[in-house]
């Protein structure tokens, strides 16, 4: 498992079209709060004929945000740019000038083995060029994963490619809606993506292949208002956590606090985690009842779980 808080700290990743100029005002005023990361999207949210224009607006927005940051104190989220083409990585960083320091990394859509090397090479290049850590977050959402005959080759092919920059892969992300699109599925607010077996089976395979070495983030939830939207989101996150996901893509500010609060650790879990991690290895027994006397703690069995719980408590906090 990843042992650094940074990999778990993306949390609620708010997607925003890159051409939305009001985003600067929202960040500076802390309208969106302090519990989110931000993805400025140049891909699906932007029409094909307006990509260059959207990129120009995004560059201006980030430069404006940088100017504000030099004279004002406000929460600056981790900012990622979701690109369309590999060449945009170096091009955008160069155009940003001093504002490049605001970019935490780049999101790579439809990541597949055939194009992986060029993106990986580009990420290595900008890390050397700017002499700081600039992350990437590949999205697994390609149609090739739907085909059972190809899925394992695709997933293990991607894992093999990513090995050479594993520390620079902040999260693995999954394209839930893109995978649902292949089948013509769309869930309602009282339904969970984990109940759509053809898609949840893909998620299970992704976690099996990547879950030991990477933090994997949960799929987008489309609902942000109306009946049951928040209850449905909470219920799906329960499935996300059981599946092995940490964090979630969000598409509206209403969703941010719901996601953040859902990943807070219960006091009982934290107490058990601390007991496990503080276990005396000189003890003759490596098993004991929990502090609440509700379940059994085993040092050898639960130590990885305990490490994750402690990190999540540091990043998201503890439920009251």
Helix/strand/pairing class, anyone?
alpha/beta
Question: Span from first to last CA?
Answer: 27 Å
- CATH overall fold name of the largest domain: TIM Barrel
Query: How large is the share of residues in beta strands?
Result: 5-15%
Shape: globular
The percentage helix is 40-55%
Gyration radius, to the nearest Å? 20 Å
Question: Residue ranges: pLDDT <50 for 5 or more in a row?
Answer: none
User: Which CATH-level-2 architecture of the largest domain?
Assistant: Alpha-Beta Barrel
Q: Report the biggest beta sheet as strand number plus sense, adding barrel if it closes.
A: 8 strands, parallel
**Strand and helix order:** EHEHEHEHEHEHHEHEHHEEH
Number of domains: 2
Descriptive labels:
320 residues, alpha/beta, TIM Barrel, 2 domains, eight-stranded parallel sheet, two-stranded antiparallel ribbon, 11 helices, 10 strands, 44% helix
Structural description of this entry:
This protein folds into two domains: 5-263, Phosphoenolpyruvate-binding domains (TIM Barrel); 268-316, no CATH class. 44% of the residues lie in helices and 13% in strands. The chain has helices at 23-28, 51-69, 88-96, 113-130, 148-162, 176-183, 197-210, 229-243, 256-262, 267-277, 299-316, and strands spanning 12-17, 37-41, 79-82, 103-108, 135-140, 172-174, 216-217, 248-250, 287-289, 296-298. An eight-stranded parallel β-sheet has the order 7-6-5-4-3-2-1-8. Strands 9-10 form a two-stranded antiparallel sheet. The chain is globular, with a radius of gyration of 20 Å. The relative contact order is 0.12. The mean pLDDT is 96.
């Amino acid at each position: 498992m990843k042992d650094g808080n940074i990999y778990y700290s993306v949390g609620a990743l708010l997607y925003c079209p890159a051409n939305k100029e009001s985003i600067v005002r929202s960040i500076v005023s802390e309208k969106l709060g302090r519990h989110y990361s931000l993805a400025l999207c140049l891909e699906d949210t932007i029409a094909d004929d307006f990509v260059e224009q959207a990129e120009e607006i995004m560059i201006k927005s980030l430069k404006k945000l940088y100017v504000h940051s030099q004279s004002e104190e406000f929460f600056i989220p981790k900012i990622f740019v979701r690109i369309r083409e590999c060449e945009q990585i170096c091009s955008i960083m160069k155009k940003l000038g001093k504002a490049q320091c605001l970019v935490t990394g780049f999101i790579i859509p439809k990541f597949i083995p055939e194009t992986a090397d060029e993106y990986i090479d580009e990420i290595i290049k900008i890390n050397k060029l700017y002499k700081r850590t600039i992350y990437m977050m590949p999205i697994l959402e390609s149609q090739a994963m739907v085909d059972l005959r190809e899925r394992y080759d695709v997933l293990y092919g991607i894992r093999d490619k990513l090995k050479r920059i594993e520390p620079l892969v902040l999260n693995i992300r999954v394209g839930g809606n893109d995978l649902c699109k292949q089948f013509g599925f769309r869930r309602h607010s009282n339904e969970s993506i984990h109940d759509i077996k053809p898609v949840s089976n893909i998620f299970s395979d992704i976690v099996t292949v990547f879950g030991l070495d990477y933090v994997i983030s949960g799929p987008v939830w489309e609902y942000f208002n109306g009946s049951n939207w928040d209850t449905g989101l909470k219920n799906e996150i329960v499935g996300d956590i059981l599946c092995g996901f940490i964090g979630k893509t969000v598409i509206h500010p209403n969703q941010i606090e719901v996601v953040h609060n859902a990943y807070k650790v219960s006091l009982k879990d934290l107490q058990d985690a601390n007991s496990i991690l503080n276990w005396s290895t000189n003890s003759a027994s490596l098993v004991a009842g929990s502090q609440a006397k509700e379940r059994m703690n085993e040092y050898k069995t639960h130590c990885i779980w305990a490490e994750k719980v402690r990190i999540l408590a540091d990043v998201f906090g503890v439920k009251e």
